[in-house]
Sequence to fold (161 residues):
Amino acid sequence: MATSLILQPADKRRGLRLPRYVLISAWAVPVLIVGQFALLAVVPVGLVMYGVWRHSGLPALRWSAALLTGLYASSLAIWALRPDGAQSLSKDLSPVLAGLIVAASLAVITVMHLRRKLSRAHSPESRGGFSPQPPERSAPRSRSTSPARGGSRPSAPAAHG
Fold:
């Protein structure tokens, strides 16, 4: 069915989920940028880009991760290629560019959380716990006790001969 395939999120169609390190890395980028450890942010930016391109089927997430990586790479290139640059990327980073990197990281985080909500919205548990099929009912249990508890096991009916 084409309609149900379109309405399902990408991780349900492909059976893929984003690893947890992608979300943690996306949260680490703004913390490192604001905390004046901008050069160390290369690790979480790389992890976000790798994880999103390897595991995601959602184009909006890929675009936001590419934007984050492009902004960070441009700030890194400006710092490395400047002849009179500061000793630290954090000191040389423009506040506008730092704000853009933080905003791009927050865009990645927002898309990831919206994706999670979308996948939960399409699950049967999110519709009040009702599944499309009624639950199976088991046969009523007999009231006999088990031999381990001292009770007797019901015997087979005697054959009349």
Observations:
- The chain is about 60% helix and 0% strand.
